[in-house]
Amino acid sequence: MSTSTLKSDLLSERDRALIVATQAGLPLVSDPWAELGKQLDMPADEVLARFQKMQDNGVIRRVAAVPDHYRLGYQFNGMTVWDVCDDAIARLGDQVGCLPFVSHCYQRPRHLPYWSYNLFAMVHGISRDEVEHKAAQIREVLGDACSGHTILYSSAILKKTGLRLKKQSGRS
Amino acid sequence: MSATTEHTTHRAPATPQPEFTALERAIINRLQYGLPLTRTPYQDVADELGVSESTLIQHLEALLAQGILTRFGPMFHAGEMGGGLTLAAMRIPDEAFQRVTEIVNRLPEVAHNYRREHDLNMWFVLATESPEGINEAIEQIETLTGYPVYNMPKEKEFHVHLHFEV
């Protein structure tokens, strides 16, 4: 895991302190950078610069609102899973990922004989029909390379806290 | 399908499309794309939406308080932080579901946990500070619950564009 080790070295203790301070949320005040700076004894410019750098290098995807999709009317959250021929998955995964209604698309390992699906595409809809209609479009993209699929609907969110770092670093 | 716990915060409601004001819609749609990292981020978004900064912040507070937004802040990418990230699944009998949910949810490494309608009925995301932490967390869950965990780390990411238009 040498690349991971390298990347973690990019995250300084000061970056870490900013992550811990904002993982529950960014302050909802006019100048959130100054507010964080006050909490962490860091100049506001440095706070902002560190956020910009973390966003540039991908540690932060973006600073954004995370909705409860049920409350927005997207009541059906379907994890569509597909058994796709290994030779074709790289090409077809890209095509499925580009469908505008697919929110996440990943290749994951099979667990034979219990689990034969290696392509996961998350689809949301306001009805099961809508999710199934979208799944049918994925099926069309995959064509003969797909030998089976199913849709796993969520029936309850059991936990949704997002990623959390502990206060103290595991490494020094 | 009766197992619930105090952590079961949401069931899919039977209500149709929710009603939002035009401004709420605009805020929800705009802020899923990310706050600009400028000296005056809320003011800049408020200007785009044609409202005052304090109106934007008040609406944001209200959307969070009502649970329409679950969070507003940096979305971290565990892999890029040098940590471990995976999706894992378990097959739990109905009578044990609540007990296992409580055990699994208690682990801080569990970021999300969903019940799904399938033989594999519990699906959770594990995020750990080191790549090795994933296997440790999985072993811990298997030991504490007595059920096997199917580890399904991503081998390739094709696309992520999670936006819900309202």
TrEMBL record, chain A:
Catalysed reactions listed for this entry: siroheme + 2 H(+) = 12,18-didecarboxysiroheme + 2 CO2
Every Siroheme decarboxylase AsnC-like ligand binding domain range: 71-159
Pathway assigned to this chain's UniProt record: Porphyrin-containing compound metabolism
EC number(s) per entry: 4.1.1.111
Primary enzyme class: lyase
Alphabetically ordered keywords of this record: Lyase
Keyword Lyase attached: yes
Domain Siroheme decarboxylase NirL-like HTH: 15-61
PANTHER family (alphabetical): SIROHEME DECARBOXYLASE NIRL SUBUNIT (PTHR43413:SF1), TRANSCRIPTIONAL REGULATOR, ASNC FAMILY (PTHR43413)
Subunit: Probably forms a complex composed of NirD, NirL, NirG and NirH. All proteins are required for the total conversion of siroheme to didecarboxysiroheme.
Function recorded in the entry: Involved in heme d1 biosynthesis. Catalyzes the decarboxylation of siroheme into didecarboxysiroheme.
Similarity comment text for this entry: Belongs to the Ahb/Nir family.
Protein's UniProt name: siroheme decarboxylase
UniProtKB/TrEMBL annotation, chain B:
Keyword annotations from UniProtKB, A to Z: Lyase
Domain of life: Bacteria
Pathway(s) this gene product operates in, as recorded in its UniProt entry: Porphyrin-containing compound metabolism
Domain Siroheme decarboxylase AsnC-like ligand binding span(s) in chain numbering: 86-158
InterPro entries xref list: AsnC_trans_reg2, HTH-Siroheme_Decarb, NirdL-like_HTH, WH-like_DNA-bd_sf, WH_DNA-bd_sf
SUPFAM superfamilies noted in UniProt: Winged helix' DNA-binding domain
UniProt-listed Enzyme Commission number(s): 4.1.1.111
Catalyzed reactions per annotation: siroheme + 2 H(+) = 12,18-didecarboxysiroheme + 2 CO2
Pfam families assigned to the protein according to its UniProt record, in alphabetical order: AsnC_trans_reg2 (PF17805), NirdL-like_HTH (PF22451)
Siroheme decarboxylase NirL-like HTH domain span: 24-69
Presence of keyword Cell inner membrane: no
Keyword Lyase applies: yes
Cited Gene3D superfamilies: 3.30.70.3460, Winged helix-like DNA-binding domain superfamily/Winged helix DNA-binding domain
Quaternary data: Probably forms a complex composed of NirD, NirL, NirG and NirH. All proteins are required for the total conversion of siroheme to didecarboxysiroheme.
Family: Belongs to the Ahb/Nir family.
Function: Involved in heme d1 biosynthesis. Catalyzes the decarboxylation of siroheme into didecarboxysiroheme.
Name of the protein in its database record: siroheme decarboxylase
Organism taxonomic ancestry: Bacteria, Pseudomonadati, Pseudomonadota, Gammaproteobacteria, Pseudomonadales
